[in-house]
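Sorry to interrupt, but I need a hand with the structure work. Could you write out one complete protein record for me, on any chain you like? Could you add the entry underneath, on a fresh line?
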Amino acid sequence: MIKFENVGLRYGIGPEVLSDISFALEPGSFHFLTGPSGAGKTSLMNLIYLGRRPTRGLVTMFGQSINDLDRRKLTPIRQRIGVVFQDFRLMNHLSTFDNVALPLRILGRPETEIQNNVNELLEWVGLGGKTNVLPPTMSGGEQQRIAIARAVIARPRLLLADEPTG
């Protein structure tokens, strides 16, 4: 599913923050990335969810090399990835429902499908009674559950969570 071969990453002209990273992640597998602060965990996550491109090496995702793809061709690959960000990255002006519905709306799914799926998922994460509430008025744990629901609503093939338990 995902393969990194001798991948390196540097920001600007500074030293490499990731060097000679090689690994493969197979479908259905479950992995933890651990290490001290500043070790490059978030930088590696950025590469995996295609938020950044490597400065060297080869990255293959879902059987396709991503190194030479333009932004337009990366979009369908990104749509297969769900991400729970460390800071949740919720849209504070959108309700709980609309935050979770956003990926489905971007994908152009029918409104009836959106209504059904979002309501079911919000019940599942214990937020069924808070569909119209704005994120800034909710606890950190509730915001985290919104972020998790948003990450899985489109049924991604890959789910990434950056420090999901704080």
